[in-house]
Design a protein that fits this description.
Layout lengths: L1 H5 L5 H12 L4 H18 L6 H17 L3 H5 L5 H24 L6 H13 L3 H18 L6 H23 L17
Length: 191
Amino acid sequence: MLTLESRLGLWPWDVLHQGIAKHTPLTFGLANVCVGVVILVIAWLLGGPPGLGTVANAVLIGLFIQGMTSIDAVQELSHHGLALRIPLLAVGIALAAPGSAFYIGANLGAGPRDTLMLVGAKRTGRRVAVVRAAIELSALAVGIALGGTFGVGTVAFALAVGPAVEAGFWSLRRLGLTVDEPGAAPVVTGE
């Protein structure tokens, strides 16, 4: 929500959600839910079994966004100057790291996009940061093609989220607050 209200660029997935909402009867929040469910199925087919957290993330994030965007005080944040909107963007990106690491580390199932990231890292042998950046940039490209809006904040998030999540894992691991390494996420293969 913070990056949305900064008006400095949507997160890459939100550019996609906005593009989908422009071409379908879905709202921005419901497009988020639909994309989450599709990504959940794709990640599952690639060997990332969903957990309670995966399903909850797929459904609840979009509904939360839908609810928050209907609150006038939240919408008013986007009408302030850059002195407020730049920190909104920075805090929104910064909170993605520990937030992702905490709920993935809880071992209740990563969200659909994070499950796809973890399965991709496991299957390719690439670092989480590299896989996440590739996924974010792919979602961004499709979103732009569908007419979603983007800006400097979009690019900042796409490039910073992978390393930030990786740093979040490292920090929580050092504090003893995670159960598994991110690469240890269960991946079921057909072999």
